Amino acid sequence: MSNAPIGNQWKTLDTDLNRISQVEYATAYVARPMVATGIAMAFIVIAALAGAVLFGQTPISLVVTFAAAFGAYMAINIGANDVANNMGPAVGAKALSMGGAILIAAICESAGALLAGGDVVSTISKGIIDPAGVQNAQTFIWAMMAALISSALWVNLATWIGAPVSTTHSVVGGVMGAGIAAAGFGAVNWPTMSAIAASWVISPILGGAVAAAFLALIKVKIIYQEDKIAAARRWVPILVGVMAGAFSSYLALKGLKRVIHIDPGTALIIGLVLGLAVWVVTRPMIHRQSEGMENRNKSLKALFGLPLVFSAALLSFAHGANDVANAVGPLAAIVHAAEFGDFAASVAIPTWVMVIGAFGISFGLFLFGPKLIRMVGSQITKLNPMRAFCVALSAAITVILASWLGLPVSSTHIAVGGVFGVGFYREWHMERRLRDMALNPTVKRLAPEERRRRKLVRRSHFMTIVAAWVITVPAAALMSALIFLLLNAVVV
Predict the structure, then answer these.
(1) In the chain, domain spans
(2) Which residues contact 254 (CB under 8 A, 6 or more apart)?
(3) In 406-458, which ranges are continuous DSSP H helix?
(4) 8 Å CB contact between 251 and 314
(5) pLDDT tens-place string over residues 384-431
(6) So where does this one cross the membrane (predicted)?
(7) In sequence order, what are the beta bridge partners of 188?
(8) 69-94: per-residue pLDDT in tens?
Protein backbone atom coordinates (compact mmCIF):
# COMPACT_ATOMS: atom_id res chain seq x y z
CA MET A 1 0.00 0.00 0.00
CA SER A 2 1.41 3.42 -1.01
CA ASN A 3 2.38 5.90 1.75
CA ALA A 4 2.18 8.97 -0.58
CA PRO A 5 0.03 11.83 0.76
CA ILE A 6 -3.42 12.12 -0.75
CA GLY A 7 -6.26 14.65 -0.83
CA ASN A 8 -6.08 17.21 1.96
CA GLN A 9 -2.62 15.95 2.94
CA TRP A 10 -1.20 17.51 -0.28
CA LYS A 11 -2.83 20.82 0.63
CA THR A 12 -1.38 20.65 4.14
CA LEU A 13 2.08 19.89 2.75
CA ASP A 14 1.84 22.79 0.26
CA THR A 15 0.81 25.14 3.07
CA ASP A 16 3.73 24.05 5.25
CA LEU A 17 6.20 24.44 2.38
CA ASN A 18 4.78 27.89 1.63
CA ARG A 19 5.29 28.89 5.26
CA ILE A 20 8.89 27.66 5.11
CA SER A 21 9.42 29.69 1.92
CA GLN A 22 8.00 32.80 3.58
CA VAL A 23 10.39 32.31 6.51
CA GLU A 24 13.30 31.99 4.06
CA TYR A 25 12.27 35.19 2.26
CA ALA A 26 11.92 37.02 5.57
CA THR A 27 15.34 35.78 6.70
CA ALA A 28 16.92 36.94 3.44
CA TYR A 29 15.25 40.35 3.77
CA VAL A 30 16.44 40.79 7.36
CA ALA A 31 19.95 39.57 6.53
CA ARG A 32 20.42 41.95 3.57
CA PRO A 33 21.52 44.94 5.70
CA MET A 34 23.83 42.62 7.64
CA VAL A 35 25.54 41.59 4.40
CA ALA A 36 26.17 45.24 3.50
CA THR A 37 27.51 45.93 6.99
CA GLY A 38 29.72 42.83 6.79
CA ILE A 39 31.24 43.92 3.48
CA ALA A 40 31.84 47.42 4.86
CA MET A 41 33.52 45.97 7.95
CA ALA A 42 35.74 43.78 5.77
CA PHE A 43 36.90 46.85 3.81
CA ILE A 44 37.62 48.73 7.05
CA VAL A 45 39.72 45.79 8.31
CA ILE A 46 41.64 45.67 5.01
CA ALA A 47 42.36 49.40 5.26
CA ALA A 48 43.58 48.95 8.84
CA LEU A 49 45.84 46.07 7.76
CA ALA A 50 47.26 48.28 4.98
CA GLY A 51 48.17 50.90 7.57
CA ALA A 52 49.71 48.26 9.82
CA VAL A 53 51.81 46.77 7.00
CA LEU A 54 53.07 50.14 5.75
CA PHE A 55 53.96 51.41 9.23
CA GLY A 56 54.86 48.17 10.96
CA GLN A 57 58.28 49.41 12.10
CA THR A 58 57.21 52.73 13.62
CA PRO A 59 56.55 53.15 17.35
CA ILE A 60 53.01 54.45 16.83
CA SER A 61 51.98 52.12 14.02
CA LEU A 62 48.89 51.18 16.06
CA VAL A 63 47.69 54.78 15.81
CA VAL A 64 48.07 54.74 12.01
CA THR A 65 46.25 51.39 11.88
CA PHE A 66 43.25 52.78 13.75
CA ALA A 67 43.37 56.01 11.73
CA ALA A 68 43.30 54.02 8.47
CA ALA A 69 40.28 52.09 9.73
CA PHE A 70 38.39 55.27 10.62
CA GLY A 71 39.48 56.87 7.32
CA ALA A 72 37.89 53.93 5.48
CA TYR A 73 34.79 54.30 7.65
CA MET A 74 34.60 58.00 6.74
CA ALA A 75 35.00 57.24 3.03
CA ILE A 76 32.16 54.69 3.18
CA ASN A 77 29.90 57.29 4.78
CA ILE A 78 30.78 59.84 2.08
CA GLY A 79 29.73 57.31 -0.56
CA ALA A 80 26.48 56.64 1.28
CA ASN A 81 25.59 60.31 1.75
CA ASP A 82 27.46 62.83 -0.40
CA VAL A 83 27.38 61.09 -3.79
CA ALA A 84 23.57 60.96 -3.73
CA ASN A 85 23.54 64.66 -4.52
CA ASN A 86 25.14 64.00 -7.91
CA MET A 87 23.12 60.94 -8.92
CA GLY A 88 19.80 61.57 -7.18
CA PRO A 89 18.31 63.97 -9.77
CA ALA A 90 19.20 61.66 -12.70
CA VAL A 91 17.64 58.65 -10.96
CA GLY A 92 14.59 60.65 -9.85
CA ALA A 93 14.08 61.82 -13.43
CA LYS A 94 14.34 58.19 -14.63
CA ALA A 95 17.24 59.07 -16.93
CA LEU A 96 19.29 56.45 -15.07
CA SER A 97 18.38 53.27 -13.23
CA MET A 98 19.61 52.88 -9.66
CA GLY A 99 22.14 50.25 -10.73
CA GLY A 100 23.39 52.35 -13.65
CA ALA A 101 23.74 55.41 -11.44
CA ILE A 102 25.72 53.50 -8.81
CA LEU A 103 28.04 52.00 -11.45
CA ILE A 104 28.71 55.35 -13.17
CA ALA A 105 29.19 57.16 -9.86
CA ALA A 106 31.57 54.52 -8.50
CA ILE A 107 33.75 54.69 -11.62
CA CYS A 108 33.72 58.48 -11.91
CA GLU A 109 34.24 59.14 -8.19
CA SER A 110 37.22 56.76 -8.07
CA ALA A 111 38.68 58.18 -11.29
CA GLY A 112 38.31 61.74 -10.01
CA ALA A 113 39.99 60.91 -6.71
CA LEU A 114 42.88 58.90 -8.16
CA LEU A 115 43.55 60.81 -11.40
CA ALA A 116 42.80 64.40 -10.52
CA GLY A 117 42.65 64.50 -6.72
CA GLY A 118 44.56 67.34 -5.08
CA ASP A 119 48.05 66.25 -4.13
CA VAL A 120 48.19 68.69 -1.21
CA VAL A 121 45.49 69.06 1.39
CA SER A 122 45.19 71.40 4.31
CA THR A 123 45.37 69.00 7.20
CA ILE A 124 43.70 71.51 9.47
CA SER A 125 40.79 71.96 7.07
CA LYS A 126 41.73 75.20 5.37
CA GLY A 127 43.10 77.07 8.36
CA ILE A 128 40.43 76.23 10.93
CA ILE A 129 42.98 75.89 13.73
CA ASP A 130 46.51 77.20 14.18
CA PRO A 131 49.05 74.34 14.37
CA ALA A 132 51.28 76.52 16.54
CA GLY A 133 48.65 76.39 19.25
CA VAL A 134 48.89 72.61 19.53
CA GLN A 135 51.42 71.42 22.10
CA ASN A 136 53.11 68.49 20.34
CA ALA A 137 52.77 65.92 17.58
CA GLN A 138 50.95 63.43 19.79
CA THR A 139 48.32 65.99 20.78
CA PHE A 140 47.92 66.90 17.11
CA ILE A 141 47.44 63.22 16.20
CA TRP A 142 44.72 62.80 18.84
CA ALA A 143 43.02 65.97 17.61
CA MET A 144 42.97 64.74 14.01
CA MET A 145 41.83 61.27 15.13
CA ALA A 146 38.95 62.83 17.08
CA ALA A 147 38.02 64.96 14.04
CA LEU A 148 38.05 61.89 11.78
CA ILE A 149 35.93 59.77 14.13
CA SER A 150 33.39 62.49 14.93
CA SER A 151 32.87 63.58 11.31
CA ALA A 152 32.41 59.96 10.20
CA LEU A 153 29.91 59.29 13.01
CA TRP A 154 27.94 62.45 12.18
CA VAL A 155 27.70 61.66 8.45
CA ASN A 156 26.63 58.11 9.36
CA LEU A 157 23.88 59.48 11.63
CA ALA A 158 22.74 61.93 8.94
CA THR A 159 22.52 59.11 6.41
CA TRP A 160 20.49 57.03 8.85
CA ILE A 161 17.90 59.81 9.33
CA GLY A 162 17.87 60.52 5.58
CA ALA A 163 19.54 63.96 5.50
CA PRO A 164 22.16 64.82 2.86
CA VAL A 165 24.84 66.85 4.68
CA SER A 166 28.19 68.38 3.75
CA THR A 167 31.06 66.04 4.59
CA THR A 168 33.47 68.96 4.31
CA HIS A 169 31.50 70.85 6.96
CA SER A 170 31.53 67.72 9.12
CA VAL A 171 35.33 67.58 8.91
CA VAL A 172 35.54 71.32 9.61
CA GLY A 173 33.38 70.91 12.71
CA GLY A 174 35.41 67.95 13.88
CA VAL A 175 38.71 69.79 13.49
CA MET A 176 37.31 72.88 15.23
CA GLY A 177 36.00 70.89 18.21
CA ALA A 178 39.22 68.95 18.67
CA GLY A 179 41.26 72.15 18.28
CA ILE A 180 39.25 73.91 20.99
CA ALA A 181 39.61 70.91 23.31
CA ALA A 182 43.36 70.72 22.63
CA ALA A 183 44.38 74.40 22.60
CA GLY A 184 41.39 76.52 23.62
CA PHE A 185 39.12 78.89 21.70
CA GLY A 186 42.07 81.08 20.72
CA ALA A 187 43.41 78.36 18.41
CA VAL A 188 40.40 78.65 16.10
CA ASN A 189 40.47 80.96 13.09
CA TRP A 190 37.08 82.57 13.72
CA PRO A 191 36.95 84.71 10.53
CA THR A 192 37.33 81.51 8.48
CA MET A 193 34.63 79.83 10.55
CA SER A 194 32.34 82.82 9.99
CA ALA A 195 32.83 82.49 6.24
CA ILE A 196 31.99 78.78 6.42
CA ALA A 197 28.87 79.55 8.48
CA ALA A 198 27.84 82.09 5.82
CA SER A 199 28.07 79.33 3.21
CA TRP A 200 25.22 77.50 4.95
CA VAL A 201 22.97 80.26 3.61
CA ILE A 202 24.83 81.23 0.44
CA SER A 203 25.18 77.71 -1.04
CA PRO A 204 21.54 76.55 -1.11
CA ILE A 205 20.16 79.98 -2.04
CA LEU A 206 22.58 80.37 -4.96
CA GLY A 207 22.00 76.79 -6.12
CA GLY A 208 18.24 77.13 -5.85
CA ALA A 209 18.11 80.50 -7.60
CA VAL A 210 20.23 79.33 -10.55
CA ALA A 211 18.25 76.09 -10.95
CA ALA A 212 14.94 77.96 -10.80
CA ALA A 213 16.16 80.51 -13.35
CA PHE A 214 17.06 77.79 -15.85
CA LEU A 215 13.74 76.02 -15.31
CA ALA A 216 11.92 79.31 -15.95
CA LEU A 217 13.95 79.75 -19.15
CA ILE A 218 13.04 76.25 -20.35
CA LYS A 219 9.36 76.82 -19.62
CA VAL A 220 9.22 80.16 -21.43
CA LYS A 221 11.43 79.33 -24.40
CA ILE A 222 10.48 75.68 -25.01
CA ILE A 223 7.55 74.23 -23.04
CA TYR A 224 5.08 77.09 -23.57
CA GLN A 225 5.93 77.58 -27.23
CA GLU A 226 3.37 76.60 -29.84
CA ASP A 227 5.95 74.52 -31.76
CA LYS A 228 7.82 72.82 -28.91
CA ILE A 229 10.05 70.71 -31.16
CA ALA A 230 11.29 73.68 -33.19
CA ALA A 231 11.98 75.58 -29.96
CA ALA A 232 13.83 72.57 -28.53
CA ARG A 233 16.01 72.31 -31.65
CA ARG A 234 17.06 75.90 -31.08
CA TRP A 235 17.47 75.96 -27.31
CA VAL A 236 18.55 72.45 -26.23
CA PRO A 237 21.95 72.71 -28.04
CA ILE A 238 22.47 76.10 -26.36
CA LEU A 239 21.69 74.63 -22.92
CA VAL A 240 23.93 71.62 -23.55
CA GLY A 241 26.70 73.98 -24.66
CA VAL A 242 26.27 76.02 -21.47
CA MET A 243 26.44 72.77 -19.49
CA ALA A 244 29.62 71.67 -21.28
CA GLY A 245 31.21 75.07 -20.76
CA ALA A 246 30.28 75.15 -17.07
CA PHE A 247 31.60 71.66 -16.41
CA SER A 248 34.78 72.32 -18.40
CA SER A 249 35.46 75.40 -16.26
CA TYR A 250 34.52 73.51 -13.10
CA LEU A 251 36.84 70.59 -13.85
CA ALA A 252 39.66 72.87 -14.99
CA LEU A 253 39.36 74.89 -11.78
CA LYS A 254 38.63 72.15 -9.27
CA GLY A 255 39.53 68.80 -10.76
CA LEU A 256 42.96 69.21 -12.35
CA LYS A 257 45.02 70.43 -9.41
CA ARG A 258 47.44 67.54 -9.64
CA VAL A 259 48.08 68.05 -13.36
CA ILE A 260 48.20 71.85 -13.67
CA HIS A 261 47.21 74.95 -11.70
CA ILE A 262 44.55 76.99 -13.54
CA ASP A 263 43.29 80.38 -12.42
CA PRO A 264 39.56 81.28 -12.67
CA GLY A 265 40.04 83.50 -15.76
CA THR A 266 41.76 80.74 -17.72
CA ALA A 267 39.13 78.24 -16.59
CA LEU A 268 36.35 80.49 -17.93
CA ILE A 269 38.12 80.79 -21.29
CA ILE A 270 38.47 76.99 -21.48
CA GLY A 271 34.77 76.65 -20.66
CA LEU A 272 33.77 79.20 -23.31
CA VAL A 273 35.77 77.49 -26.08
CA LEU A 274 34.56 73.97 -25.25
CA GLY A 275 30.99 75.19 -24.73
CA LEU A 276 30.91 76.69 -28.23
CA ALA A 277 32.42 73.50 -29.69
CA VAL A 278 29.78 71.33 -28.01
CA TRP A 279 27.01 73.66 -29.22
CA VAL A 280 28.22 73.31 -32.82
CA VAL A 281 28.40 69.50 -32.54
CA THR A 282 25.09 69.14 -30.70
CA ARG A 283 22.87 71.13 -33.11
CA PRO A 284 22.69 68.47 -35.87
CA MET A 285 22.45 65.68 -33.29
CA ILE A 286 19.41 67.22 -31.58
CA HIS A 287 17.83 67.91 -34.98
CA ARG A 288 18.18 64.24 -35.99
CA GLN A 289 16.95 62.99 -32.59
CA SER A 290 13.87 65.20 -32.71
CA GLU A 291 12.73 64.17 -36.20
CA GLY A 292 9.27 62.58 -36.07
CA MET A 293 8.66 63.54 -32.43
CA GLU A 294 5.19 64.58 -31.35
CA ASN A 295 4.69 68.19 -30.32
CA ARG A 296 4.27 67.52 -26.57
CA ASN A 297 6.24 67.68 -23.33
CA LYS A 298 6.94 63.95 -23.22
CA SER A 299 9.03 64.30 -26.38
CA LEU A 300 11.07 67.08 -24.79
CA LYS A 301 12.05 64.85 -21.88
CA ALA A 302 13.82 62.45 -24.23
CA LEU A 303 16.03 65.26 -25.55
CA PHE A 304 17.33 66.05 -22.06
CA GLY A 305 17.98 62.45 -20.98
CA LEU A 306 21.50 61.90 -22.37
CA PRO A 307 22.86 65.35 -21.37
CA LEU A 308 21.58 64.65 -17.85
CA VAL A 309 23.50 61.36 -17.67
CA PHE A 310 26.71 63.08 -18.79
CA SER A 311 26.20 65.88 -16.27
CA ALA A 312 25.75 63.36 -13.42
CA ALA A 313 28.95 61.56 -14.44
CA LEU A 314 30.92 64.82 -14.62
CA LEU A 315 29.59 65.95 -11.24
CA SER A 316 30.77 62.66 -9.72
CA PHE A 317 34.23 63.00 -11.29
CA ALA A 318 34.57 66.56 -10.00
CA HIS A 319 33.34 65.52 -6.56
CA GLY A 320 35.90 62.73 -6.42
CA ALA A 321 38.67 65.12 -7.45
CA ASN A 322 37.72 67.89 -5.06
CA ASP A 323 36.05 66.48 -1.95
CA VAL A 324 37.78 63.16 -1.33
CA ALA A 325 40.99 64.94 -0.36
CA ASN A 326 39.11 66.98 2.23
CA ALA A 327 37.63 63.82 3.69
CA VAL A 328 40.95 61.97 4.04
CA GLY A 329 42.79 65.11 5.15
CA PRO A 330 42.81 64.18 8.86
CA LEU A 331 44.10 60.70 7.97
CA ALA A 332 46.87 62.24 5.84
CA ALA A 333 47.76 64.52 8.76
CA ILE A 334 48.00 61.58 11.16
CA VAL A 335 50.18 59.60 8.73
CA HIS A 336 52.50 62.58 8.27
CA ALA A 337 52.81 63.20 12.02
CA ALA A 338 53.42 59.52 12.68
CA GLU A 339 56.08 59.27 9.98
CA PHE A 340 58.00 62.49 10.65
CA GLY A 341 57.15 63.29 14.25
CA ASP A 342 55.88 66.80 13.44
CA PHE A 343 52.86 68.52 11.95
CA ALA A 344 52.35 71.10 9.22
CA ALA A 345 49.61 73.19 7.70
CA SER A 346 49.54 71.04 4.56
CA VAL A 347 51.06 67.73 3.52
CA ALA A 348 51.11 65.47 0.47
CA ILE A 349 48.44 62.77 0.52
CA PRO A 350 50.02 59.30 0.18
CA THR A 351 48.66 57.24 -2.69
CA TRP A 352 47.41 54.49 -0.39
CA VAL A 353 45.37 57.04 1.57
CA MET A 354 43.72 58.28 -1.66
CA VAL A 355 43.03 54.65 -2.63
CA ILE A 356 41.24 54.11 0.69
CA GLY A 357 39.20 57.26 0.04
CA ALA A 358 38.34 56.34 -3.55
CA PHE A 359 37.39 52.70 -2.95
CA GLY A 360 35.66 53.49 0.34
CA ILE A 361 33.38 55.93 -1.46
CA SER A 362 32.56 53.29 -4.08
CA PHE A 363 31.74 50.67 -1.43
CA GLY A 364 29.63 53.14 0.54
CA LEU A 365 27.71 54.17 -2.55
CA PHE A 366 27.09 50.58 -3.63
CA LEU A 367 26.10 49.28 -0.19
CA PHE A 368 24.23 52.20 1.39
CA GLY A 369 23.78 54.88 -1.30
CA PRO A 370 20.29 54.07 -2.66
CA LYS A 371 18.51 55.52 0.41
CA LEU A 372 19.87 59.04 -0.07
CA ILE A 373 19.68 58.81 -3.87
CA ARG A 374 15.93 58.19 -3.57
CA MET A 375 15.60 61.02 -1.04
CA VAL A 376 17.29 63.61 -3.26
CA GLY A 377 15.85 62.27 -6.51
CA SER A 378 12.20 61.68 -5.74
CA GLN A 379 11.18 62.34 -2.13
CA ILE A 380 11.85 66.09 -1.87
CA THR A 381 9.98 67.03 -5.05
CA LYS A 382 9.08 65.34 -8.32
CA LEU A 383 11.79 65.61 -10.97
CA ASN A 384 11.77 65.01 -14.70
CA PRO A 385 14.80 65.20 -17.06
CA MET A 386 14.36 68.94 -17.64
CA ARG A 387 14.16 69.80 -13.94
CA ALA A 388 17.04 67.46 -13.06
CA PHE A 389 19.13 68.98 -15.85
CA CYS A 390 18.56 72.41 -14.28
CA VAL A 391 19.78 71.07 -10.91
CA ALA A 392 22.98 69.60 -12.40
CA LEU A 393 23.66 72.75 -14.42
CA SER A 394 23.08 74.87 -11.33
CA ALA A 395 25.64 72.85 -9.34
CA ALA A 396 28.43 73.48 -11.86
CA ILE A 397 27.63 77.15 -12.52
CA THR A 398 27.21 78.02 -8.83
CA VAL A 399 30.57 76.50 -7.87
CA ILE A 400 32.27 78.46 -10.67
CA LEU A 401 30.51 81.68 -9.62
CA ALA A 402 31.35 81.16 -5.95
CA SER A 403 35.01 80.40 -6.73
CA TRP A 404 35.25 83.56 -8.82
CA LEU A 405 33.71 85.63 -6.00
CA GLY A 406 35.84 83.89 -3.36
CA LEU A 407 32.81 82.56 -1.47
CA PRO A 408 33.13 79.31 0.51
CA VAL A 409 30.32 77.01 -0.64
CA SER A 410 29.29 73.38 -0.20
CA SER A 411 28.62 71.24 -3.28
CA THR A 412 26.11 69.24 -1.20
CA HIS A 413 24.16 72.34 -0.21
CA ILE A 414 24.24 73.65 -3.79
CA ALA A 415 22.90 70.43 -5.32
CA VAL A 416 20.13 69.93 -2.74
CA GLY A 417 19.40 73.66 -2.85
CA GLY A 418 18.93 73.26 -6.60
CA VAL A 419 16.32 70.55 -6.00
CA PHE A 420 14.53 72.82 -3.52
CA GLY A 421 14.78 75.74 -5.96
CA VAL A 422 13.14 73.75 -8.75
CA GLY A 423 10.37 72.56 -6.41
CA PHE A 424 9.64 75.98 -4.91
CA TYR A 425 9.66 77.60 -8.36
CA ARG A 426 7.05 75.09 -9.51
CA GLU A 427 4.96 75.92 -6.41
CA TRP A 428 5.21 79.64 -7.10
CA HIS A 429 4.34 79.11 -10.75
CA MET A 430 1.33 76.95 -9.86
CA GLU A 431 0.11 79.53 -7.32
CA ARG A 432 0.37 82.27 -9.94
CA ARG A 433 -1.68 80.22 -12.42
CA LEU A 434 -4.29 79.52 -9.73
CA ARG A 435 -4.55 83.24 -8.98
CA ASP A 436 -5.02 83.98 -12.68
CA MET A 437 -7.68 81.28 -12.91
CA ALA A 438 -9.44 82.68 -9.82
CA LEU A 439 -10.08 85.92 -11.74
CA ASN A 440 -12.17 83.91 -14.18
CA PRO A 441 -15.69 83.59 -12.66
CA THR A 442 -16.34 80.35 -14.58
CA VAL A 443 -13.47 78.52 -12.84
CA LYS A 444 -14.17 76.86 -9.50
CA ARG A 445 -11.93 78.14 -6.71
CA LEU A 446 -9.88 75.73 -4.62
CA ALA A 447 -10.32 75.62 -0.86
CA PRO A 448 -7.27 76.70 1.21
CA GLU A 449 -6.88 73.11 2.53
CA GLU A 450 -6.72 71.76 -1.02
CA ARG A 451 -4.13 74.37 -2.02
CA ARG A 452 -1.96 73.40 0.95
CA ARG A 453 -2.30 69.73 -0.02
CA ARG A 454 -0.98 70.50 -3.48
CA LYS A 455 2.39 71.77 -2.23
CA LEU A 456 5.11 70.39 -4.49
CA VAL A 457 7.96 70.33 -1.93
CA ARG A 458 7.64 68.04 1.06
CA ARG A 459 7.96 70.30 4.09
CA SER A 460 8.96 67.48 6.45
CA HIS A 461 12.02 66.61 4.35
CA PHE A 462 12.81 70.28 3.89
CA MET A 463 12.86 70.94 7.64
CA THR A 464 14.85 67.77 8.40
CA ILE A 465 17.55 68.62 5.87
CA VAL A 466 17.84 72.28 6.85
CA ALA A 467 18.06 71.33 10.54
CA ALA A 468 20.81 68.80 9.75
CA TRP A 469 22.73 71.47 7.80
CA VAL A 470 22.52 73.98 10.65
CA ILE A 471 23.72 71.61 13.36
CA THR A 472 26.40 69.78 11.33
CA VAL A 473 29.36 71.91 12.46
CA PRO A 474 28.26 72.30 16.13
CA ALA A 475 27.35 68.61 16.45
CA ALA A 476 30.58 67.37 14.86
CA ALA A 477 32.56 69.86 17.00
CA LEU A 478 30.96 68.71 20.25
CA MET A 479 31.45 65.03 19.42
CA SER A 480 35.05 65.68 18.40
CA ALA A 481 35.87 67.56 21.61
CA LEU A 482 34.46 64.73 23.74
CA ILE A 483 36.31 62.08 21.73
CA PHE A 484 39.57 64.05 21.99
CA LEU A 485 39.25 64.35 25.77
CA LEU A 486 38.46 60.62 25.99
CA LEU A 487 41.45 59.65 23.83
CA ASN A 488 43.74 61.95 25.79
CA ALA A 489 42.53 60.52 29.11
CA VAL A 490 42.90 56.90 27.99
CA VAL A 491 46.41 57.36 26.58
CA VAL A 492 47.68 59.45 29.48
Answers:
(1) 34-491
(2) 318, 321, 322, 399, 403
(3) 411-438, 448-453
(4) yes
(5) 888 889 998 888 888 777 767 666 677 778 888 888 899 888 888 887
(6) 34-55, 62-80, 140-163, 170-190, 196-220, 232-253, 259-281, 302-321, 349-368, 388-405, 411-428, 462-487
(7) 129
(8) 998 999 898 888 887 778 888 888 88
